[in-house]
Structure formats: structure tokens, C-alpha cells
Amino acid sequence: MASREQFSSRTGFIMAAAGSAIGLGNIWGFPTNTASNGGAAFVLVYFVMAFCLAYPALMAELIIGRHSRSNIVTALRFISPNKATRLLGTGVGLYGVLIASLILSFYGIVAGWMVAYLLEAVAEMIGWSEASHWLTGFSFERNVLFMGVFMLLTMSIIASGIEGGIEKWSTRLMPMLLVIMVALIIYVFTQPGAMEGLRVYLLPDISQIKPALIIDAMGQAFFSLSLGVGTMLVYGSYLSNKENLPKLGVAVTLVDTGIAFTAGLLIIPAIYVAQHNGTTIFAEDGSLIAGPDLIFQILPSLFDSMGEIGVFVAFAFFALMTIASLTSSISMLEVPVSLAVEETPANRRQATLIIGGLIFGCSTIILLSFETLFGFVIDLTTVYSQPLLGVALCIFTGWIWHRNNLLQEIKAGHPEIEGTWFWKVWPGYVKFFCPVLILMAFFQSVAG
Ligand code: PFF
After folding, report:
1. CB contact at 8 A, 14 and 166
2. pLDDT tens for residues 232-270?
3. Strand, helix or coil for residue 288
4. C-alpha separations of 17 from 28, 154, 222, 319, 426 in Å
5. Core-most of 40, 209, 403, 424, by most CB within 10 Å?
6. Can you give the pTM of this predicted structure?
7. Where does 243-309 have alpha helices with state H?
């Protein structure tokens, strides 16, 4: 195999992997899930799930990736001992690539809305009210245009490769995101109603912890850490052998959950501030008005209520959402691109152009038949496919891959690991615990 690119530094990897993990799922999904699942109790269970279940699965992807130094399809074939398991590896890998691409095809649409609302704030600042109207209207033209703009941004970063593309941009964008978010939190905390939101967010009511909440928290943790589709696997494949994998995995999980927690500190109080200002937050049955509504109706009305400064806050918020979406979308596109670059004669630029074009086509088809396809693709990918792929990856790690090779790979970069709890607990843990619990979540979501 030709010499492969690698992340140039540990920080670069952490930024890129955390950038993949942090996205619409954290900043919008986590707070709305928290709000509709009883507040702080959900936060508590989410943290337990992220570290006890998602972290072990993340380690499985990173370890397979670094060992095989390739995309998900080649990697699963590589660790398979016989013909039957190799065939299974090819099937699971290709399914992962398809799902990563389909996730991008709906993610690009939602991220396009973020770009449109970002420009709407600019249009307001300079008094272009007609443009501002068009930007927030739900026309097909607007949706295709901004999905296309977002896809082009994603493709241009991926075409530049690992060090100059993914690593450089994640390292630049991720700290910016934190700065914007903290500034917004400070602003929201000065508003009436914020403290009620903070109480709901921070003081757990343990009686709220029910099976549905546990399963929701687990799903959120898996989606949030970008697990199952080979994203973390391919990022692991660009890691040097010198790196201590278990520690890096902890760092990524900490940063991801930390940003989710911070996003909650912003959104939950903001919801209560909006309610204080007269916006209807909860439906008649007491449930939260969630879905796209939360960000695109409640928050803009919150920004409006801020007076002159509102348009700048809106700009900062949607800039933040666009940045977070971009560092996730590049990790999704890297999954099919790495397969094409490694298994076909295409170079990185050609692969990015062709695959990006195909995904743009898929997104356009979804937009043409929005009512039927949008929800369907989200359910197909996140509710049904991601958990099943997670189970498959745990089975490959725990049951198919030769145990000695697995242990050798964990040892690389961390020679004294044999004395640690990770060495003793993790291999058995991904073999039995993880698949069983993920399957439980799967059947719950199917039944629900
Ligand atoms: N983790 C991303 C988020 O929370 O928005 C979503 C995601 C990224 C899912 C990459 C899957 C993936 F491969």
C-alpha cells in the first residue's frame, strides 16, 4: 500500500475526532432530548452511557482502524480470519459506507438551513428585508442552493486531504465554536427566565429515570460519537502507532460530552427565556415542541426579543451551527472517499468530486420529495442502521478478530497497558455487554 497520510499531532486528531462527534446532534439533539426527557436526569444517564457504552464502542472502531490502516471495508476484511467472515466484512463495510453517505445527504440539507439563517442575519443587518424573507422561506430553490453551498465547503476540505484539510480546519474551527458558545451562554444567563432553565438542567429528579429515558440517552451517545458507520474507524487509521489509544478515546469522549453539556447550558436556559417572553414552548400535552421547530422558530423569536443586538446573536449562533455541522460532515464524506481512494484508481480529488456529486444528487432527490423521504432517510440511517452497525463492529472486534492480534494492537503505543483496568475489562465488555445493550436499544426503537 502506498504511504498513507496521518494526523500530524495528537491535538490534530483529537480536534478532528471531536469535530466529527460535535455537530447538530450535540448542539440541537442533546438539549432537546434533555428538555423532553425531564432535564438533569437525562444528562446524568447520558454521561453514564457515553462513558460505559459509547466509549468502549469508540475504542473498537479506533483500534480496528489503526491496526488495519484502511477504510472500513478493507479493515473488516483485513481482520477476518476466513472467507465467510471476509464476505461478511465486505457486506458490513459497504453498508456502513452507504449509511455514512446517506446520513450526509440529510445532514447537508439541515446544515444548509443553518447557512441560510446565517445569511439571513447578515441580510437583516444591512436592511435587505426581501432577501431575508426568501432566506427563511422553505422554497425548493433555497434548500438546494444552500445544501449545495454546504456540500461544496465539505468537498473542498476533504479534497485537501488529512493534514492540510481535515486536521487544519478542525483545529481552527473547534476552538472558535467554544468561544462563540460561551459568549452566548453569558448573554442568555443575564436574561429573565434563564435561572429556571438552569435549575431544570442541573438538578436531577431521579424518579424520571425510566427505560425510555435510558434508551434515548444511549441512542444520543452513539449518534453523538459518530459510531457505527466507520467514521471513527477511518480517523483511527490516520493515527500514529505511538499514540495511546485508550487515552485518546477518553479525550474525545470528554470533549464531545463536554460540548454537549455546554450546549445544554445555552439551549435549556434559552428555551425558558423564550417562554418567559411569551413563546409557546410546550405542546398541550406538556411535551416539548421539538424537531426543526425548536431552532427555527423558538430561537429566532428569542433573538428578535433581544432588540438591536439580536441579529448579531443570531449571526453568532448560526455561525456556530454551521461550523459544528461542517466538522461532522467532513468526517462522513471521508468514509466513502477513503474507500474509493484506496480501492479504485481514482485520486482524492476525483473521488471527492464524484462521491460529493452523488450525495448532492441524493440530497436533491430528498428535497424533491421532502415530505416522504426526509423523515424516512433519517429513520433508516440513525434509528435502524447505526445501532445495527454498532453491534456488527462489536462482533467483529469481540468474536471474529483474533484475540491475540487485538491485544497486540491495544499494546502498541502503550506497552504497560497489561496492568490497567482497560486491558482486563474492555475485551470482554465489547464482546458481550455492548452488543446486548445496543440490541435492546434497537428493539426498543423499532417497537416505539
Ligand atoms: N456526531 C454527529 C453529531 O452529533 O451531529 C453526527 C454524525 C457524524 C453521525 C458522523 C455519524 C457520522 F458518521
Report:
1. no
2. 998 898 888 888 889 899 999 999 999 999 999 998 998
3. strand
4. 19, 16, 14, 20, 21
5. 40
6. 0.87
7. 245-276, 292-293, 299-304
Mutational test site, ligand 1, from 24, 322, 326, 331, max ligand atoms within 8 Å of CB: 331
CB-ligand 1 contact for 331 (6 Å cutoff): yes
Q: From 433, 409, 377, 428, select the one nearest 61 (Cα to Cα).
A: 409
CA distances from 290 to 171, 260, 353 (A): 31, 17, 35
Distance CA 107, CA 30 (A): 16
Which atom of ligand 1 is nearest the CA belonging to 324?
5
Q: What are phi and psi of 277, to 5 degrees?
A: -85, 10
The per-residue pLDDT for 1 is: 40
C-alpha cell, 301:
423569536
Distance (angstroms) between ligand 1 centre and the Cα of 328 equals: 6
Task: Give the Cα separation of 246 and 249 in Å (integer).
Answer: 5
Residue 15 has pLDDT above 90, yes or no: no
Beta carbon of 231 within 6 Å of any ligand 1 atom: yes
Please report which confidence band the pLDDT of residue 165 belongs to, taking 50, 70 and 90 as the band edges: low
| Side-chain half-sphere CA neighbours of 171 within 13 A | 14
Domains defined along the chain, listed by start: 10-447 (1.10.4160)
Establish whether residue 219 lines the binding site of ligand 1, counting it when its CB lies within 6 angstroms of any ligand atom: no
Ligand 1 centre to CA of 224 (Å) is: 6
pLDDT digits (tens, 9 = 90+) for 417-431: 888 888 888 999 999
Cell digits for 413? Answer: 503505543
Whole-angstrom Cα distance, residue 329 to residue 158? 10
Task: Answer whether 21 contacts ligand 1 (Cβ < 6 A).
Answer: yes
Sign of CA dihedral 99, 101, 107, 113: negative
Distance of CA 348 to the CA centre of its chain: 23
- Give residue 21 CA to ligand 1 midpoint distance, Å: 5
Contact 158, 165 (CB under 8 A): yes
Note the pLDDT of residue 3.
53
Q: How many CB atoms lie within 10 A of CB 190?
A: 8
- Ligand 1 centroid to 106 CA: how many Å? 12
